[in-house]
């Protein structure tokens, strides 16, 4: 297991940048342990809803967690607005870093994550493979 601290800069798309990082660094299986920072807005998909909701305001990232692999990411985040209201859900593309995003990743050396369609859920779900 290896830790990888990451800082995203203003203008980075949180999800797209983390997925690109996983591909570029050949992370076969990784977890986002935590993330904090700020966003210019966020696209979060709430439970049971198919389309993300746009939060078009400055936001603070309170928590960020999820899994990363070559087939993509599964990320959840909670954010707060200037009034302290908290929103949370599945991270979609379009969460743009405002000042910084400080993220801690953990790479699992002997595993590979894949996203494979699960007929029971109707979604691509995590499949875990041991690597020698």
Automatic annotation (TrEMBL):
Q: Name one Pfam family in it.
A: PCC
Q: Which PROSITE patterns does the entry link to?
A: PPC (PS51742)
Query: Which InterPro entries would you find in this protein's record?
Result: PPC_dom
Q: Which CDD domains match?
A: DUF296 (cd11378)
**Superkingdom of origin organism:** Bacteria
Coiled-coil annotation reads none
Domain named PPC: residues: 1-129
User: What parts of the sequence cross the membrane?
Assistant: none
Q: Give the matching Gene3D superfamilies.
A: Hypothetical protein, similar to alpha- acetolactate decarboxylase, domain 2
Query: By what name is this protein known?
Result: PPC domain-containing protein
Q: Which species is this UniProt entry from? A: Caballeronia sordidicola (Burkholderia sordidicola)
- What taxonomic lineage is listed for the species of origin? Bacteria, Pseudomonadati, Pseudomonadota, Betaproteobacteria, Burkholderiales
